[in-house]
Design goal:
alpha+beta; 5-stranded mixed sheet; two-stranded antiparallel ribbon
Length: about 350
């Protein structure tokens, strides 16, 4: 531990410096009075002792600033792994803690940026290469431009469209330019339509999962909610798509809706029968490009890792909450939307 670490304030350290200098000077004067030592000699020794103490304390005070300067220069060169010592309890310790937090955030941003380039490049390359191969076969006469070939090309085009839409949503998320148009609606027919679209999309996907059964459970049947229907569609569609991808063969995905605590509030759950999400990954599963361990399972295609991040963003827009809940089997995602005032018409 460094000598100045115990001090909780820079002012306390400076006060200790002054007190130390006064004590030494007083001691030397006391020695001069009771000895034959001249006043000039005592003065010289007093000045030298004060300078040494001041230099010692000043070095201890400025050492964190020198360390921060060195780390800042390393960050300017692209090295975000460096940190400064944060063992002190004074203002410099608080500054070091805040500095390390900023460095960690910058490191995370740099990592996300690199992952964005790598993941988007990979996700774009796959459907583009498949689409190019289909079109080259048609142009070269290897394949005929029959409905089946065109459906293959269409599926790859739709996959590209979904990726571009996710990237646009991500851009809107960062810029905060998406307004919320909340309205009152009936939950059963709304969710039934979302699940029907999800079933159709799953059937036309390159990773088709027609064997997974989608089940809707709304109670009471006349349940209504107050939310932005388009944003809620993103939430449910992404959660269902994620659940279908990780369901076992002939599995079951259940979307459950219940009335929340507030007026027109809504509690949603999406449950699957897959391997579930390990507890250690539950805090990070909604981060961008975080595919998790389930992405590499036999039933998952990996995806971009944007679906759950977009779902959390849409829930946050409503002022609600989303998270992974305990489940005896598979994965259970809980969504709570606070709702709004009842329709007075």
């Amino acid at each position: 531990m460094r000598p100045l670490d115990p001090y909780r304030s820079v002012k306390a350290a400076l006060g200790a410096l002054v007190i130390g200098s006064v004590v030494i000077t007083t001691f030397l004067v006391f020695v001069a009075i009771h000895s034959a030592t001249g006043l000039r000699v005592i003065t010289v020794f007093s000045i030298i002792a004060s300078l040494l103490i001041t230099q010692f304390v000043a070095h201890g005070l400025t050492a964190p600033l020198d360390e921060m300067t060195e780390v800042t220069r390393a960050m300017a060169r692209g090295d975000y792994t460096r940190r400064v010592g944060a063992g002190r309890r004074d203002e410099f310790g608080d500054l070091a803690t805040a500095f390390n937090r900023m460095a960690a955030d910058l490191e995370a941003v740099d990592t996300h940026r690199k992952e964005l380039v790598a993941n988007v490049s990979h996700e774009l390359r796959t459907p583009i290469a498949a689409l190019r191969a289909v079109l080259e076969n048609v142009v070269d006469g290897v394949s005929a431009a029959d409905p089946e070939t065109m459906r293959t090309a269409l599926r790859q085009t739709e996959r590209l469209g979904r990726l571009v839409e996710q990237l646009l949503d991500l851009s809107r998320l960062d810029n905060g330019v998406v307004p919320l148009h909340a309205r009152r609606f009936e939950v059963w027919p709304y969710l039934a339509g979302v699940l029907k679209e999800a079933g159709m999309a799953s059937g036309s996907s390159p990773h088709s999962r027609k064997d997974v059964h989608l089940h809707l459970d709304v109670s009471p049947p006349e349940l209504t909610a107050h939310a932005d229907a388009e944003r809620l569609h993103q939430v449910v569609a992404n959660l269902v798509d994620n659940a279908v991808k990780h369901s076992p063969p002939h599995g079951r995905v259940t979307v459950r809706a219940r009335r929340g605590e507030g007026a027109q509030s809504l509690d949603l759950e999406v449950l699957d029968e897959g391997p579930g999400i390990p507890e250690a990954e539950r805090d990070r599963v909604f981060e961008r490009f975080n595919r998790g361990s389930r992405a590499h399972g036999p039933c998952g295609d990996g995806g971009t890792g944007l679906g759950l991040a977009i779902a959390r963003w849409a829930v946050d827009l409503h002022g609600g909450s989303i998270g992974v809940a305990e489940s005896p089997q598979g994965c259970r995602i809980q969504v709570t939307l606070p709702g709004g005032p009842r329709d007075q018409s």
